[in-house]
Amino acid sequence: MLDKWLALQLLPTISINVLQPLEEIFLHSFSYPFWLVKSDYQKLANFVKTEAKETVQRAQTDFNLTEEEAVHNLLFILGFNAFGGFLIFFISLLSSLGEQKSVHDELRKEVREKLANNVLSFETVQQMELVFSFVYETLRLNPPVPSQFGRARKDFELSSHDAVFQIKKGEMLCGYQPLVMQDPKIFENPEDFVYNRFTKEKGGEKLLKYLFWSNGPQSGANGPSTSNKQCPARDVVPMTAALFLAYLFQRYDEVAISSTSFTTLTKAK
After folding, report:
1. Residue from 111, 146, 167, 113 nearest 231 by CA
2. Geometric angle at alpha carbon 208, from 206 and 213, rounded to 5°
3. What CA–CA distance (Å, rounded) separates 108 from 248?
4. Does the annotation flag 174 for ligand binding?
5. CA 239 – CA 247 distance, rounded (Å)
6. N or C: the chain end with fewer CB closer than 10 Å?
7. Domains of the chain (ranges plus CATH)?
8. Which residues bind heme (predicted)?
C-alpha cells in the first residue's frame, strides 16, 4: 500500500530514461489523482488511528493538532520520511545483530534490568544506552541513504579538519555519509563495529554530533526544520529500531540470525 502511495508522489520527479519524450509528456507533466490510492490510504490512516492512540493523543494535547491532522502527519512521517529507513535500515540492523552474537547477552541484560518493573514504552527504552549505541553504530556504518545533495543558498565557508573551502551561492554540494562517518580523526577504529561506541562509559555521547546518517547531526535541539535538509525521521528511525531490539531481547532468551533471517528464537522462560 505504501509503495503505491509513494510511487504516485515520486514518479513525476523520477527519470526512467525510457521512450523520451513520451516519458516527459505522460509521466512528468501532471500530478496523479488521489483516487488511485484513496482506498489503501484510508486503510493506512485507520491503522495509525487505532495503533498509535498514545502518539495521536500527544499530538492533540502537546501540539494542539486535531486528530485528523495528527493521523495524516504521522502517516506521512512513517510512510514517506521513515519508510526508507525502515525498509533498508532494519535489514542492516538484523545483519549487525547476526554478526554480533557475542553482545546479545549484554543487550538482553540491559533490556531486562530496565524493564524489571516497567512496561516497554518510548520512555523506558530511552534508558537503554547500550541498545541505542548498537542502533547508532549500525547507522554509522550502514546509513540507509548514503548520499545527499543540496544547492548552496548563499556564499559561505565550509571547514574541514585542516582546510577551508569557499562555497558560492548556487553551487551543488554532495555529502557521502559512509565516508563522513568513518573519519579516523573522529572515530577510533572507524571501520570496526564497536557496539558500545556511543555509551557514556566510552564517552560516545559527544560523537552523536558527528553521526550524520540523517543528513544532519543526531544530537542537538536544532534538528529537522524547513531551513535545512535533515531527514524529519531523524528520531523516529533510531527510536523504532531501539524499541524493536528491546522487544526482541525482552521476549527471547536466544536469538540467531543468518542472512537477515531468524533461524533460532527461544522464548524467555
Report:
1. 146
2. 160
3. 9
4. no
5. 12
6. C
7. 2-81 (no CATH), 100-148+177-267 (1.10.630.10)
8. 231
Distances (CA, A) of 259 to 105, 140, 234, 238: 21, 20, 27, 22
Q: To the nearest 10°, report the CA torsion of 85, 90, 91, 95.
A: 130
Give the CA distances from residue 199 to residues 79, 135, 141, in Å, rounded to whole numbers and listed in that order. Answer: 30, 11, 17
- Residue 28 has which C-alpha cell? 512528468
CA distance to 71, 95, 106, 215, 257, per residue, from 124 (Å): 24, 25, 17, 27, 26
Q: What HEC string does the chain produce?
A: CHHHHHHHHHHHHCCCCCCCCHHHHHHCCCCCCHHHCHHHHHHHHHHHHHHCHHHHHHHHHHHCCCHHHHHHHHHHHHHHHCHHHHHHHHHHHHHHHHHCHHHHHHHHHHHHHHCCCCCCCHHHHCCCHHHHHHHHHHHHHCCCCCEEEEECCCCEEEECCCCEEEECCCCEEEEEHHHHCCCCCCCCCCCCCCCCCCCCCCCHHHHHHHCCCCCCCCCCCCCCCCCCCCCCCCCHHHHHHHHHHHHHHHHEEEEEEECCEEEEEEECC
Which pLDDT does position 148 carry in this prediction? 86
Please work out, in degrees rounded to the nearest 5, the angle formed at the alpha carbon of residue 234 by the alpha carbons of 232 and 239. Answer: 125
- Residue ranges in the chain whose pLDDT is less than 50: none
Cα 123 from Cα 135, distance rounded (Å):
17
Q: How many residues does the chain have?
A: 269
Amino acid at 268: A
CB 82 within 8 A of CB 237: yes
Structure-block grid coordinates of residue 209 = 554530533
Cell of 41: 490510504
Cα 134 to Cα 107: distance, rounded to the nearest angstrom: 9
